[in-house]
Amino acid sequence: MTAELGAFALALALALSLAQAGLSAAARLTRGPVLARAGEGAAVAAFAAVLIAFLALMNGFLTSDFSIANVAANSHTEKPLLYKLAATWGSHEGSLLLWCLWLTGFGAAAALFGKALPQGLKAVALSTQGVLGVLFLAFAVFASNPFARLGEAPIEGRSLNPLLQDPALAFHPPILYGGYVGFSLVFSFAIAALVEGRIDAAWARWVRPWTLAAWSLLTVGITLGAFWAYYELGWGGWWFWDPVENASFMPWLAGAALLHSAIVTEKRGALGGWTVFLALLAFSFSMLGAFLVRSGVLTSVHAFAVDPKRGVMLLAILGVAAGVGFALFAWRAPRLQPGGVFAPVSREGALVLNNLFLAVAAATVLVGTLYPLMLEAATGQTISVGPPYFGLTFIPLMSAAMLILPAGPLLAWKRGDLKGALQRLTVAAGIAILAAVAVLALNDWKKAFSALGVGLGVWLVCGAVAEVAERVRLFRAPTAESWRRLKGLPRGAWGTTLGHIGLGLFALGACVETGWKVEASEVLAVGDRLAVGEYRLTLERSGVAQGPNYLAERGVLTAEKGGRTVCTVAPERRFFPAGRQTTTEVGLCFRGLSDLYVVFGERRQTPSGQPGWVVRAYWNPWARLIFLGPLLMAIGGLVSLSDRRLRLAAAPRPSGSTPPAEARA
Questions:
Q1: Would you call 117 helix, strand, or coil by DSSP?
Q2: pLDDT in tens, 517-551
Q3: Rounded to whole angstroms, what are the CA distances from 346 to 264, 408, 497, 585?
Q4: Residues 6+ apart with CB under 8 A from 30
Q5: What are phi and psi of 661, to 5 degrees?
Q6: 3-state helix, strand, coil in the chain (%, to 5)
Q7: What is the per-residue pLDDT across 160-219, written as a single tens digit (0 to 9) for each?
Q8: Domain assignments of the chain as residue spans, ordered by start
Q9: Which of 2, 300, 403, 553 lies at 20 to 30 Å from 253 by C-alpha?
């Protein structure tokens, strides 16, 4: 009966989303507060119905109800409890239900917490969110029903893909989808702004918190996915420019650009049209990602290879939603006023330049992701676009964006003093140059690009610190005054600083790990040694270990440095009988910010004829920063979100500010 309850709740959610869209649209047309409240109630009720459906599906996995096709295909009685829960969203149908849960949840949040929004704007936004809910819920009900019953229930399930049975990946999809779908509400606000002709500072202030929340969740989700790929797949890397990785990265780039653009719109009433365009683009990229991972056009460890017919339906949803949004933008954009005027050298100018680099970088990722698919569809020719392409296109663009980033916050609005800003960054620039020169001096010229990357990372970190020092007038005011200013800095300023420092730390980790990584591989018998960098690995023993739903062949290795044992690792090869699949479990030895990374491979004979195992080892210097940097960026986003001034959408405009640029039909 639980499955039937879930199916009924899902169908009810579809009806409620339809009511939400209709009632909210009617409220906008009639300016009726009763209809508006009814639409808001429908939004909350739709979320409640999807939540009931989601819990019903989760119950099916927890109780191993193999009469449900989705449970039978993705669960097993011997699976640990955590992965039974994770299997709820580990399939196409379950992940789509999770998508609908976030979608209706953001709509309910806007209904409950958007009391300060103008009635017309709120009604159109909720109506748009309701339409999006109708599209995705209809797809779930009629084409991807997670509660479909089997005619004859199997005794045992087929289990979840073993690669997905990992703690990091258990939490990766819910957080990632929060970021993906969070941009849906930003999309709805953009549609409402175009319909209402209200693209001004107040509108930007309403959009920024939702953008910040979605972007922060997406940052954490992407980082968890990269960390999972790093230690679970056993190939020694953390990002391969896989098309599905790119699918999550494109909305992240668009969201980052939107955050910066919305600041200009809020503070100066400028770039309103561009901000709306980015709001539409961010969720369009999210829907494109949903299509790529569910259409069967990609073969990836991250993808749901399903019936292409359902992929066509998702493509239709993308075409309808994005098509209507951009068509409305094309119709309304010529009527939008340009907003505040500013000089090229100003904080607005720096943010525009930042947006330009981010937008072009997102375009290069889009081309690199879609071009192979389009070429194969048109000609049948198969090509691979990988790290070399992105190294030549994306990395220079982002390097240029990071180079100018510290100067922007030090420029004044409307007209800035570039010379003065650069003078305040003299110490930061000196430290960055010294770092790059020192790295280059200690290595050969082949590490020149890595040295420049280190200098760029140091520049970002020191530049963010220099901005704080300038805000508190460090060394230019009495210590007590600087301390008072420091304590009085708004949380939004601290969030920006943490975000920029996190980006710098990531750049440092990525450059050092890529430039100074050491790899070694050899067939080892028990007692044999393998040298990797300054470390010596010894295979002490091997054996078979029994897991909850797998058998593991485990190698135990000790790592020595300078004749002293520093750690012991136990990498494994796991065999899952239910799915008859084999996975690797990496052994990690944490050495400060760096990792000694060990993979235990298949059986082979050593050159001397003894039985042995292939052991691959990597020395990954400063690899921790690759994951700690983005997490610090996400923390910065959450700190900014906690700023009361940012959370209050209806905060009064400061006196003397630029009047809003409105465009009314």
A1: coil
A2: 999 999 999 999 999 999 999 999 999 988 888 89
A3: 11, 8, 19, 51
A4: none
A5: -100, 105
A6: 65, 10, 25
A7: 777 777 888 888 989 999 999 999 999 999 999 999 988 888 888 889 999 999 999 999
A8: 1-161, 166-181+189-419, 425-517+625-646, 518-620
A9: 300
